[in-house]
Amino acid sequence: LSxxxxxxxxxxxxxxxxxxxxxxxxxxxxxESGEGKDLIRAKFHLVxxxxxxxxxxxxxxxxxxxxxxxxxxxxxxxxxxxxxxxDERKRASHVPxxxxxxxxxxxDSLGGNSRTVMVACISPAEGKPY
Length: 130
Hints:
Layout: E1 5-6, E2 14-15, E3 19-30, E4 37-48, H1 55-58, H2 63-86, H3 88-93, H4 101-105, H5 107-110
């Protein structure tokens, strides 16, 4: 597996895409009655999101600019889904999972019978690219 990276004005090895690594786990557990077994399933999505980018700051043009647009649109779609899931009124009517490939792939892990943990790595200052 390889991940596309390229330099920008803000980061010499900027990730140019989101990554999702999915583990599907199945376990057969004996029933309490002793007759037969039940199948328990779990799915783990390990997601590495590329950071949002401002075209002016990164100096991206051409292919890099198009990559930035795709990165930002995926992050926006994910934000819209999380916002809709957090709002009782929106959740009852429509959650926009189909806005991007990212949210479509994570649909079963974002809503319903799932638990989600988020870890964020955030730059300490807006004007200083660390």
